[in-house]
Amino acid sequence: MCSLSQxxxxxxxxxxxxxxxxxxxxxxxxxxxxxRCDDLESLKKRxxxxxxxxxxxxxxxxxxNKPVTNRKKDVAEKLKPxxxxxxxxxxxxLTLRSGEPQTFELxxxxxxxxxxxxxxxxDLSFSMKDDLENVKNLGTxxxxxxxxxxxxxxxxxxxxxxxTVMPYISTTPARFINPCTGNQNCTRPFSxxxxxxxxxxxxxxxxxxxxxxxxxNLDSSEGGFDAIMQVAVCExxxxxxxxxxxxxxxxxxxxxxxxxxxxxxxxxxxxxRCHLENNTYTMSHYYDYPSIAHLVQKLSDHNIQxxxxxxxxxxxxxxxLKNLIPKSAVGTLSSNSSNVIKLIIDAYNSLSSEVILENGxxxxxxxxxxxxxxxxxxxxxxxxxxxxxxxxxxxxxxVILFGAIWLCTVGKAPSALKCxxxxxxxxxxxxxxxxxxxxxVEIVLNFICDCQCATEGEPDSKKxxxxxxxxxxxxxxxxxxxxxxxxxxxIDEVRTEDLDANCRKDNGMDICSNNGDCVCGTxxxxxxxxPAEIYSGKYCECDNFNCDRSNNKLCGGHGxxxxxKCICDANYTGSACDCSLETSTCLxxxxxxxxGRGTCVCGIxxxxxxxxxxPTCEICPTCPGVCxxxxxxxxxxxxxxxxxxxxxxxxxxxxxxxxxxxxNQLPQPTDQSFSLAHCKERDANDCWFYYTYAIRNDTKExxxxxxLGMIGPAKC
Length: 716
Fold this sequence. Notes:
alpha+beta, six-stranded mixed beta sheet, 13 helices, 41 strands, cell membrane, fibronectin binding
């Protein structure tokens, strides 16, 4: 009850949560709180002492905020990679209150002349013999081309064949020494070799690659995944720096993945660790190939962007793989690798033109929403809010994070937050980074578990039944073994069935209508994931979200849902408030409701006769023409002739007659705000007469030309 002396806007994980017009109650077994308040104004109206109302708010503190680097390639002074900043800010501290979002902005800018490490991993099975010849001069050629992009470039080289067990290779002594047939001289099979650690010496790359020999395996797929895993995790042996990391994998075959090792009797899952001895992978016979998911994780953890340079035949396979590996690209390798430099440059430009943000594991109950503002003001939301495309060097990308929102799990504290009774949760740290880059933003999350009053509780308070609880923040926090609003019930002494009887509506079978828990004979309604959806009532029999809908909107968007019944706004009615009482949509051009031929129901004309149609019952496909309908009456009243000459006064006095001298004086349709019919009829003497028929302000009007027109030689 809010009349208690210390009712607070209380954000304890275990207690009352009052959030501007939404309240959420968090309960655990053995604990109950009585204060139920909607917002600050509600507390004031309930005579809560304003001086004793606490309203803790979340906050954001920027702890490290170095500006992004404006670096030019032609400047004499060169910066070390660790001196370059591409994302801002670098560290923040967020204090979160349940249900209250915190919004902050990140800025990313690609630095010009940023260093690049490129590791070339090549399949050296026999089918790649011609390709090896063209790669032997790759080091110096690629160095020259990359000078256009960066002045700080390193290149390395590794080679792969296959696991050195049957059935992937032949293990007979002769074939193991030289696996190639005929007069071909090949080197013995191996899984992966790190031939050259990353270096800025292109001629060293050429020399060592020139010394490499082709090998051979038995099956068509290769052990590329084993090698990619080692390249990713063996940072020291490969020589990776904290710069842009590119891995080019060149092959003309498919790949083995997790589970394929069983063919060779290898069942241990890949452990994702470095096993290079003398620059050779030594555990290919012991560990299975890595799974795709495992590979994705390691490539992301080590900020490696992958370029698959594969022949046309295997393009579909590697394009599917690319869709599973963020920040990867696929290029078509010519049959002899002659286009490999252009392929690498194009793939790098494609990869570097897209920025994708990812965040680490979030604590339970915390969510993040992204909104990006990209080049030319293009905005992205949802999953598209994480990324920007077509980014050039020097372009800035703004990403707005619509906070980390802490929404606690109903009935229990999120385990990751470790909210103890002291009301202080352990801080959590999450990291956000652009994929393929080593820089990241560190975000420390602090959680408001309780109000200050929780530290000033009164243990064994007389306000809690016989001192069986601590009175804090205007409510009783029961001791172990006690339950109830005032801790008046003992778990051991009360009979569950007696208490449950008070929680059944009309002696029914359902406890608290299956929408709550019976705590000490009183229903405590469950909380839903959406805090705006609320169960209520003595037996939790009511809610504000199960009313009729119209156009997929609760109460048609024109009312509020109370105890599963729509309370409609003014001018609306119906079970779903979908019936408008407004009649303006039923007005015809003549100012009449439904042309006088129907009634206006929910803003729509319901015509009294099925022969009338149209939005205002203005159409009558089966009716005789207006002109033919009124011809005889117009004829008898204007010219005193025709079939109704003798009954004219009786039958034809329903309209007002106005005579005009010629056709030009008849009312025109464009001059009127009501329906108007122009008529031209012929009498018994083959003479034409002209008139108009209209209904204006419920008055029927006929304008008629007072002289008849001739047809042929007849005199009229």
